Amino acid sequence: MSFAAGGVSVEAVGVRRAFGPHVVLDRLNLRVAAGEFVAIVGRSGSGKSTLLRLLAGLDQPTAGEVRIDGRPLAGLSPRTRVLFQDGRLLPWLRVGENVALGLDDRRRENAARLLERVGLATRAADYPGVLSGGQRQRVALARALAAEPGFLLFDEPLGSLDALTRVEMQRLVEELWRERPFTGVLITHDVAEAVTLADRVLLLEGGGIRAEWPVPFPRPRATGSPDFARLVEGVLGRVLGRPAQMT
């Protein structure tokens, strides 16, 4: 399968991460093609956040390596951004300043366009504290994309939102990914969200990737279809421990 140009390839090769005697990831292998969107699901404590930190360059493996476009990752990459659950906006900066923080003149113009694209151009002069949770996440998404990343990691960014806002944000993420291609990795507990957004869903369990489900449905996903529901149920059943074969 080929994907839209604009992203970077991402690999984890034989990755192990231990904290003293406690091994979280062990001989984990992962490959994400440039422009692909992958979701990683698993139970709490399975190592999803640890894997995200390694892929982002925020932590280093005990053994093995992470590669971006075939080159070993030794720290933070200028082509990588992370969208966290809490948005992590700077409360003393206005919305427009948050989105444009650290950008050159060309990307500042891009920041203004993205703020308009996420529907918050009229809130550029406001401080984050007066925004709703969904609006803050829209600002955080605009800020991440304004830097034109090749790789965007999503760390449960929609987990605290109400159901309707979450659906709206899922649609916005997908639309922006299609407009401005990047390689995406989503960490989530929400299996339906994973199937809605991803090209593939991977199960992290026992320190490695234990199952994989390609998502064959056209975009935007018809989340009310029987086929969609069957795939969600199959993934959820495996996450909860019902046996399933690797696909």
Element layout with pairings:
Layout: E1 10-19, E2 22-32, E3 37-41, H1 48-56, E4 63-68, E5 71-72, E6 80-83, H2 95-100, H3 105-117, H4 133-146, E7 151-155, H5 163-179, E8 183-187, H6 191-197, E9 200-205, E10 208-214, H7 226-239
Helix pairs in contact: 3-4, 4-5
Description:
The protein is of the alpha/beta class and 247 residues long. The chain has two domains: 3-79 and 149-239, P-loop containing nucleotide triphosphate hydrolases (Rossmann fold, 3-Layer(aba) Sandwich); 90-148, no CATH class. 32% of the residues lie in helices and 25% in strands. The chain is built from seven helices and ten strands. Strands 6-7-8-3-9-10 form a six-stranded mixed sheet, with helices on both faces. Helix 3 runs antiparallel to helix 4 and helix 4 packs parallel to helix 5 (163-179). The longest helix is centred in the last third of the chain and has 17 residues, at 163-179. It is globular, with a radius of gyration of 18 Å. The protein starts with 9 loop residues before the first strand and ends in an 8-residue tail after the last helix. The model has no long low-confidence stretch (mean pLDDT 89).
Descriptive labels:
32% helix, four-stranded antiparallel β-sheet, globular, single chain, Rossmann fold, 247 residues, alpha/beta
Kindly state the mean pLDDT as a whole number?
A: 89
Output the number of helix runs: 7
CATH top level class name of the largest domain? Alpha Beta
CATH architecture of the largest domain: 3-Layer(aba) Sandwich
Placed side by side, the strands forming the largest sheet appear as: 6-7-8-3-9-10
Report the sheet-strand fraction.
Answer: 15-25%
Number of discrete domains? 2
Terminal CA distance reads 15 Å
Cα radius of gyration in angstroms: 18 Å
User: Could you name the CATH homologous superfamily of the largest domain?
Assistant: P-loop containing nucleotide triphosphate hydrolases
- Low-confidence blocks of residues: none
